[in-house]
Specification:
The protein is of the alpha+beta class. It is built from 15 helices and 19 strands. Helix 1 runs antiparallel to helix 3.
Length: 386
């Protein structure tokens, strides 16, 4: 990682910490109320993190692009038109509050007897992790609500930063590896001084292969994907990954977005096998963060742990006027001289760039049971991207 890239990584770490502290410092009444921010039907728990992130990154570099669902119109005015990655600006793709519907229910639960108390104090006054896992599913280190930022520079993925609001942990995927770090209490001001060098002193995550984990053929077919709304079941069916019904292989149907790749890490150990994760025509803010893990995650041998395949359907479905699956001519992934890169100029064609969708499989390097299916249907492997 170049020096300037580490500076940006430090700024993004500081930004998500600011988002977390912003939530923890306000009351249940404030996070649960509707505010006239962005689309106009936004809750405080969505607006507060985004405002903090936008403010901190803007103060660090006012020229950088920050792409969120609420800031689409602002970003699109300056969107790059040149497909040459060398001419494309620094871009940050952000999901300020993933799993906001679950987080809303969680905050309602812990604040129901004291709506004016700080959320941080309420969480410290109960076993927040245990309660989250009872209300939704374990492990909270993966399933908890998060804030995530991914940096794209000159067509390359540079890093991803994901902060878990429930466990107060940060996961950072960079050229140094994938690291997981636990923050101090929300009221401890020393959190503001945390950067990449500090996080690298935390736990280095391993992404073990299916052979190392002793997976059976059926274990290799266990997957995590989103099937929670109309159209997603049909979309998944047409991927043809399974001849039989996929329902018995689903680990979760409404999983988290940005941290979904962590299901393939050692954090999932003891919570059931997951053979791969699937992006089922979901928005870019859900899946772009996975690419850092494909690029930087390592297995027990110190080698690249994950592989990525883009799914192109012959007759793609449409969701909110966006294709749920893209063929190579419409894809963000471009190849030149056997090197792949991200062409962000493609998104200028859309009124809502943050709504861009695709289908993608992220899979352990040795999951031959699914890799053979992907290759039979000639789905494109996203290699050397970045």
């Amino acid at each position: 990682m170049e020096g300037v890239e580490q500076k940006y990584c430090d700024a993004c770490i500081n930004a998500v910490i600011g988002a977390w502290r912003g939530l923890m410092e306000v009351s249940g009444q404030e996070v649960l109320c509707t505010v006239p921010y962005g689309k106009g039907d936004t809750l405080g728990l969505d607006a507060i993190p985004e405002i903090n992130i936008n403010g901190r990154l803007g103060a660090f570099d006012s020229r950088a692009f920050l792409i969120t669902e609420e800031l689409d119109e602002q970003a699109r005015r300056r969107w790059p038109t040149d497909s040459d990655p060398e001419r494309q600006p620094l871009m940050f793709f952000c999901d300020p509050t993933d799993r906001s519907s679950q987080l809303k229910k969680f905050f309602e639960r812990i604040s129901r007897d004291s709506m004016t108390e700080k959320i941080g104090n309420l969480m410290e006054g109960c076993d927040a992790i245990k309660l989250w896992e009872e209300m939704f599913e374990p492990p909270a280190t993966i399933t908890g609500s998060t804030s995530a930022i991914t940096c794209v520079r000159k067509g390359e993925i540079v890093f991803s930063v994901i902060l878990n609001y429930i466990t107060a942990t940060i996961c950072v995927a960079t050229s140094s590896g994938v690291f997981w770090y636990r923050l101090k209490r929300f009221s401890d001001s020393s959190n503001e001084n945390i950067g990449l060098d500090k996080i690298k002193k935390g736990k280095k995550l391993c992404f073990p292969g299916v052979r190392k984990l002793g997976f059976s053929s059926d274990d290799c077919k266990q997957l995590v994907t989103f099937l929670g709304k109309e159209g997603y079941h049909e979309n998944f069916r047409d991927s043809k990954l399974f001849v039989e019904s996929a329902d018995k292989f689903l680990h979760h149907t409404t999983p988290p977005g940005p941290p979904r790749s962590l299901y393939l890490s050692e954090l999932q150990k003891g919570y059931g096998p997951v053979g791969f994760i699937f992006c089922n025509g979901e928005k870019i803010g859900e899946w772009i963060h996975w690419l850092s893990f494909v690029k930087y995650a390592r297995n027990e041998y110190g080698r690249c742990a994950l592989r990525a395949f883009e799914i192109s359907l012959e007759r793609p479905y449409v969701k909110n006027d966006m294709l749920m699956s893209t063929s190579p001519p419409y894809s963000l992934f471009r190849e030149e001289n056997n090197v792949m890169y991200l062409d962000m100029s493609q998104l200028r064609n859309f009124e809502r760039p943050s709504q861009f969708r695709c289908m993608m499989v992220i899979i352990p390097w040795d999951n031959e049971r699914i890799i053979q299916v992907l290759k039979q249907y000639q789905y494109r492997e996203i290699t050397s991207v970045f």
